[in-house]
Amino acid sequence: MAAAALAVTVVWFWMALTVHYNYQGNWTALFCIGDRMPAPPELARAEHLYVFPNSSGYDGQFYHDVAHDPGLTHGYERYIDAPRLRQRRILVPALAWILAFGRQQWIDTSYFAMMLGFLALGVYWMGRYCLKVGRSEWWGLLYLAVPSTVISIDRMTTDLALTTLFSGLAYYLRSGSLATLWSIAAAACLIRETGLCIVAGYTVYLLWRHQYRGGALFATSALPFFAWAFLNSHTPSGTQASYPFHFPGSAIVEAFTHPQSYPVPPSVQTSLTIFDLTALAAFLAVLVAACRMAWRNPALGSITVPFVAVVLVLGSLSGMQPEFAQVYAYGRPFSPILLAVVLDALAKRNSPPMVLFGVVSARSALLVGWQAIGVLRAILR
Prior knowledge:
Shape: globular
Structural class: mainly alpha
Largest sheet: 2 strands, parallel
Strand order of the largest sheet: 1-2
Number of helices: 21
Number of domains: 3
């Protein structure tokens, strides 16, 4: 608990610093709302939203809209890129709404509190896992370096919550009841569709172990997701791009041959390109490490390998190159893979996977480096 308390204190202090010095004290900047995809006018007026100019914003702004209107009964779907998709990922926005008792003026604060709560749980469960494998619980602070943590705190995406629940599953796989595992898996599916990877993987594992009753029961943890998807099927789907199959690994290959471009001087662009390609190579090496880990630890591997399969499928679709050119795009949804490899490395005291994790995490952290520079400049001014 001490490690979790320290983590929350440090992250909250950082959030307060960057909001104060970089965003003129406006906490809504953390939702990364862009002027090219504006928020509902009544929200903009009531909350005096911080809007980034010449920006399309980021996912957090849409979860912010859903948190203020979970049922999308006030016309907010017109301001969301993919209303049905965002509403399907209901758990975090709904919890923020519930914690605020539906009071509009409290919802943003409760959303931030939810994110810090998931952070605390992630550090706690990772620390407990480390204790079980003979390491100090303070290793749980590594959870702060997981890309989904860095990115979600920066832009209020829900990937932190999913990775936290994954860490809980990893911990309870060793001693938890099926009811506990079922509850966590069901919640994970309501955060993001990739939660179904957990359900599918562990169900297959239980069936492989001839635990047919347990496998059948665990498979039902996906039912809340499908029930909610059916209930919100009337919600407009928004603009849906299609990504046909190209060739195996096509998007990943294109990410290497057409790296991300940044509005920076050429010398800085070169350095960033090298770092991007190194991070992507490290991530691919982590995928291999995850598959090897699955042979040694089938239980943990069962909830990890399906995420690897999703990466390989997406990496073969035409038009997905940007998703692998930016660590924000692949690092946050697939953080469960990185976390699983780290947990296994801590248990086996194996250093190379930790180095690979460090490279991907460092690239994620660099993306918020400009905020740190802004804070330092303001303090030293």
